[in-house]
Fold:
Amino acid sequence: MHKKALSLLLFFALILTSCGSSKNRRVVTTKKTKTTRTVKTPRTKPTRKLNTKPTAASATAKAVINNAKYYKGTRYKYGGTTKAGMDCSGLIYTAFKKENITIPRVSSAMAAHGDWVDLKTVKPGDLLFFATKKNSRKVNHVGLVTSTRTGNVEFIHSSTSKGVIVSNLAERYWYFAFVQARRLL
Structure:
């Protein structure tokens, strides 16, 4: 009975000590001597963050971004491609067209153009595609990446409520609506 009580006490002591911080330590129990010792656990290297510095844009990408920024503040107009009114795909289409780059006119067709890009590696000039309709993952909105930093991707687009604006992918609405990124340049 004495051994059982000692074993039970040792068991509870082990549980209580293992509930403490285990950031860099672990408890090892050996069967032969029934003693407990603490062993340092080796630290792992921190993971490398991507996009820690702003990503440089090519000359063509800068020109396309500047073309899009020209329309900043322009009101939303379905099917619009001028300063009188723009829709999201019209903005992107016009910005690329001014650099003699032909792309499809509608966002769903643009989403099939170019190369798929991991969000961690997007750079200025890439396109971001969104599904903004409830319960749908079908692309119906597009934006042009203007700048990137760690955890911060800014893009210009034409929203139905505010017209042509710059938004951040970290905003809750855009984060959850995001579908894919593509590179055309």
Remarks:
- The mean pLDDT is 81.
- The two ends are 78 Å apart (CA to CA).
